[in-house]
Amino acid sequence: MLSPNGDPQVLANAPAGRSNPPLQSRDGSPLSHSNPLPAIPANRYVTFFALAILGAIADLWTKQAMFAWRGLPGMRPPHWVVEGYVGIETAVNIGAVFGIGAGKGQLFAAISVVAAIAIFVWLFVKRAAHQWLLTIALGCVMGGIIGNLYDRLGLWWEPGMDPRWQSGVRDWILFQASDTLKWPNFNIADSLLVCGAAMLIYRSFFPVDEFDDDKPNSREESNEAHRDDNSSQ
Question: A single GO BP annotation from the record (predicted)?
Fold first, then answer.
């Protein structure tokens, strides 16, 4: 376009060229190409470590209490909470799930350490902790890993006990449908592992947004829009 005197005129608002818009997080804050993911919110760390630590404490305390009350396996008959179906019976699992891999406790301990490291890296290095469901599920799994790892390392075992128990896991919860149809005894750590795994399976069938940080509520969005309107006037 020419000015009235014939000189070329440049529009003040004309774009000098097209460029890709900057990366933005859900709340609109800019993200760098070298670090494309926003920081992990503090509440994810709190939630994960609270579940892991409190879950492990609950597991270890109940194991200690039940074994102190009922003694080592075989010393006392089951204490029934629901006669014939639900009870308390101490047992030591020297294998993995359902006794598989009996006598390989040290191997399972090593696998547990690797799994714990992988969980932490996945959540807080790869930033999967942006998803609430993953944070909660893996917090439960970590609590279960810590509780059973303590036993796998033989930290509960004392001289004079059966040597096979040194890398075994203490169990005390008994479920059965009849005297011939029993579920293998388990503990709080096992329950945490199962709950965490169930949530992960649910997520695999019903995926969520890659980032589901807390969204601003409607009032916050309204206030933000009002501030934008005032700034544009």
Answer: proteolysis
Structural domain contains residue 132:
yes
- Clarify whether 190 is annotated catalytic: yes
Q: What is the number of domains present in the chain?
A: 1
Specify the higher pLDDT residue, 144 or 107.
144
Identify which of 134-138, 178-182, 209-213 has the greatest average pLDDT.
Answer: 134-138
**Of 179, 190, 213, 214, which is the active-site residue?**
190
Evaluate whether residue 4 is within a structural domain.
no
Q: Is residue 142 part of a domain?
A: yes
**62: Cα within 13 Å, side-chain hemisphere:** 21
Buried b (16+ CB within 10 A) or exposed e, 174-212: bebeeeeeeeebbbbbbbbbebbeebeeeeeeeeeeeee
Domain assignment present for residue 199? The answer is yes
User: Which one of the listed residues 171, 209, 214, 229 is annotated catalytic?
Assistant: 171
Between the ranges 11-25, 33-47, 83-97, 134-148, where is the mean pLDDT highest?
A: 134-148
Would the pLDDT of 93 be above 50?
yes
List the domain range (segments joined by +) for residue 136: 40-207
